[in-house]
């Protein structure tokens, strides 16, 4: 038995001073005092918060883009996640055109099974819809997948509105949910052409080609389609703009209730001035080429307020890491490239908990942090009550968080297998001191123990 003593437990009903015991991959007991016996492993959590393991419900690990593999595999990505306090990730398996959903799911299992430090589940991204798709959906539910993704952008992935409506109806009828990448792809294509025609080829062209209106239009369109589909449950992923937030508020005011909203730390902390960052011979802005792009300070402020008000339910990372050297530098203008050739995505799977806790400071207490990064993701994505809470019988995914820790985020010391971090030099307040996955200690003070106890989470 593993016993955590003297900590402040972050429970659904509030903070409680108590001991917690784990055995057989489950939380065995929560009590004012748990007696230790010979052979038990005891950890002192004095001065720390004892929290349910955090959940990152938006990652892209060991993903092939057609040109590049992401820098992080399931092995390196889940190890980095665990070192930061995240004990479960939900990764986007993708059924590319010409690939069936069952074949895509089998491939993602092949990549992940037996390699993970943190637990893992899968969404299924759908790049084509037609004959046989309904039967494939049924196979996904049988395989523990109940959330799906479609795109309004990227020519090789996007569905049209009629197809999206059919997916929404089919997923709703089966009790699932659709996550949607909300950018108007036709407008992005045209705006990229116009920006390049103006002679803007560096990273600063990326946000110019994907303005806030491109997101807001797609968010609004999605929510009208969801209404037509009988108020089908949707998750607006990586919300980045105040205009997009306004579209969500309008839909909720119309009476839609099945709208879930996710944002990411980068949209709460960084802004579009980063695209003009000096360094890397004028190419440092490539670090922040992700879609949607970083936005204005006013958008950042609006999203922070929406997090505090509860309008945004979950904070995930959209972790999709590419190295600056050998991957993102393919878009260097001095080598004949441009911003459209820079692989889209950035790392964050390791640093989300510390960045969020530090950014909000006293505005979000431990119960709020758990709600945004553990309880709500568990509820929204079908893992509650096994995950997302500390309770007897729940999974033994437990984080002992030291709120007094002070440390600096740096690529030199990170576990992520990528050559930079967008949070370089960030002074973090708080850190995962001990991280348990399925009752096994996998990380201590940001360093892995070498234990890989992650398992597949069928939802």
From TrEMBL:
The keyword Cell division does not apply. Its EC number is 3.5.2.2. It comes from the Bacteria. Signal peptide: none annotated. It holds the Pfam family Amidohydro_1. PANTHER family: COLLAPSIN RESPONSE MEDIATOR PROTEIN, HYDRANTOINASE/DIHYDROPYRIMIDINASE FAMILY MEMBER. Residues 49-442 form the Amidohydrolase-related domain. Belongs to the metallo-dependent hydrolases superfamily. Hydantoinase/dihydropyrimidinase family. This is Dihydropyrimidinase. Keywords: Hydrolase, Metal-binding. InterPro entries: Amidohydro-rel (IPR006680), Hydantoinase/dihydroPyrase (IPR011778), Metal-dep_hydrolase_composite (IPR011059), Metal_Hydrolase (IPR032466), Metallo-dep_Hydrolases_sf (IPR050378). It is an enzyme of class 3 (hydrolase). One of its GO terms (molecular function) is dihydropyrimidinase activity. Its cofactor is Zn(2+).
């Amino acid at each position: 038995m593993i016993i955590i003593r003297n900590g402040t437990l972050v429970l659904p009903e509030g903070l409680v001073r108590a001991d917690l015991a784990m055995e057989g991959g489950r939380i065995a007991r929560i009590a004012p005092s748990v007696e230790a016996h010979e052979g038990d492993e005891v950890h002192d959590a004095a001065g720390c918060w004892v929290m349910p393991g955090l959940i990152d419900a938006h990652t892209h690990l060991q993903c092939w883009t057609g040109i590049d593999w992401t820098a992080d595999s399931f092995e390196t990505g889940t190890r980095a996640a665990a070192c930061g306090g995240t004990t479960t990730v939900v990764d986007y398996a993708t059924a590319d055109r010409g690939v069936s959903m069952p074949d895509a799911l089998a491939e993602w299992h092949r990549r992940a099974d037996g390699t993970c430090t943190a637990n893992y589940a899968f969404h299924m991204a759908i790049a084509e819809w037609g004959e046989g798709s309904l039967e494939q959906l049924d196979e996904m539910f049988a395989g523990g997948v109940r959330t799906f993704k479609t795109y309004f952008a990227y020519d090789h992935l996007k569905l049209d509105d009629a197809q999206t409506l059919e997916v929404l109806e089919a997923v709703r009828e089966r009790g699932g949910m659709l996550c949607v990448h909300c950018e108007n792809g036709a407008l992005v294509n045209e705006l990229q052409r116009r920006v390049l025609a103006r002679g803007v080829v560096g990273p600063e062209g990326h946000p110019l080609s994907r303005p806030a209106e491109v997101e807001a239009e797609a968010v609004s369109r999605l929510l009208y389609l969801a209404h037509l589909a009988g108020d089908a449950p949707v998750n607006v992923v990586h919300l980045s703009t105040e205009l997009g937030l306004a579209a969500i508020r309008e839909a909720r005011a119309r009476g839609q209730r099945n709208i879930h909203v996710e944002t990411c730390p980068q949209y709460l902390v960084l802004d579009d001035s980063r695209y003009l960052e000096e360094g890397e011979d004028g190419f440092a802005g490539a670090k922040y080429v992700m879609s949607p792009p970083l936005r204005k300070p006013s958008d950042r402020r609006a999203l922070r307020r929406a997090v505090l008000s509860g309008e945004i339910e979950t904070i995930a990372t959209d972790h999709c890491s590419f190295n600056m050297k050998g991957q993102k530098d393919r878009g260097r203008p001095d080598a004949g490239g441009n911003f459209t050739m820079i692989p889209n995505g950035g790392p964050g799977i390791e640093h989300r908990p510390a960045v969020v806790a530090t950014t909000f400071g006293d505005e979000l207490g431990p119960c709020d942090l758990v709600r945004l990064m553990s309880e709500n993701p568990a509820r929204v994505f079908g893992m509650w009550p096994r995950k997302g809470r500390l309770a007897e019988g729940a999974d033994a995914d437990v984080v002992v968080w030291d709120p007094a820790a002070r440390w600096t985020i740096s690529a030199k010391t990170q576990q992520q297998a990528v050559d930079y971090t967008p949070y370089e030099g960030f002074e973090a307040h708080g850190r995962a001191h001990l991280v348990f996955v399925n009752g096994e200690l996998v990380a201590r003070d940001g360093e892995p123990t070498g234990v890989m106890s992650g398992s597949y989470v069928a939802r």
